[in-house]
Amino acid sequence: MVYENILVKQEKNIGWVIINRPEKLNALNAQTIKELYSGFLSLRENREVKVVILTGQGDKAFIAGADINELVHLDYNQGKDYALEGQELTKLIENYPKPVIAAINGYALGGGTEMALACHIRIASDRAKMGQPEVKLGLIPGFGGTQRLARLVGKGKALELILTGRVISAEEALAIGLVNRVVPHEELTSKVVELAEEIMANAPLALRFAIQAVNQGLDKSLEDGLLLEAELFGKACATEDSQEGTKAFLEKRKAEFKGQ
Ligand code: COA
Questions:
Q1: Quick one: which atom of ligand 1 is closest to the CA of 142?
Q2: Which one of 74, 116, 175, 177 is separated from 167 by 20 to 30 angstroms, measured CA to CA?
Q3: pLDDT tens, residue by residue, 58-68
Q4: Predicted confidence (pLDDT) at residue 1 exceeds the cutoff of 90
């Protein structure tokens, strides 16, 4: 697929997905959503890519939401289909078999906060602004915001953000657990790459099983979640990498993981 609205690149073992509509503050139109889906699929198949970083082009925005031009005059069926399409993208990211980090470089509003919520880790620039302002447009979050925000920050804080439509600073986002860390704007890329490298030093299949255990476990009872964990722990034990990782520790050397 030829991309018009995103950039997809690989640097060493890091895959980058960059929304590239800075003149529209990287708002997500239907074409961009399709391209993002395709970009994430291509990096998923690329065995050299161990971690993916999602960010926005330019200095001002991560994603300033769904493209409001496309939200005018949607009827019930069109609106539902629109939400389902966005949700497919956020599910692809959430269940991605490799860690996905959101580098939130500016406005992350509406669909922008929702895309960040689908990522496994969120690092924000100190200039980031986040929020779910859909109610100001007579809408509600449709790309998973009502569900993932409540799961991440708790029902009370989620409802406060969604009902007020208030836009919050990076510091406030950190205080409620919406982002993992806030870094100086100029250091966002280097800090996110550093984090990606720290994660990439670990066994790829273990990372995949850990994501699966946390994601799927949260939707289960504790008992069933623990069973899932045991199942995935068993799968991890059966990998070559767990043999290598445990032996390397005992032999006091650095493990060489192969993703097998
Ligand atoms: N959809 C479509 N276009 C958008 C957009 C969106 N979600 N967010 C920004 N843009 C466009 C603006 O229309 C403008 O385009 P133009 O130059 O052709 O007029 C351009 O991006 C720059 O935005 P502008 O509003 O001029 O920048 P600003 O610095 O004054 O304000 C924001 C920045 C983010 C506060 C403001 O753009 C905004 O409120 N955006 C909408 C956020 C939102 O409600 N998102 C949820 C959608 S469900």
A1: 48
A2: 74
A3: 999 999 999 99
A4: no
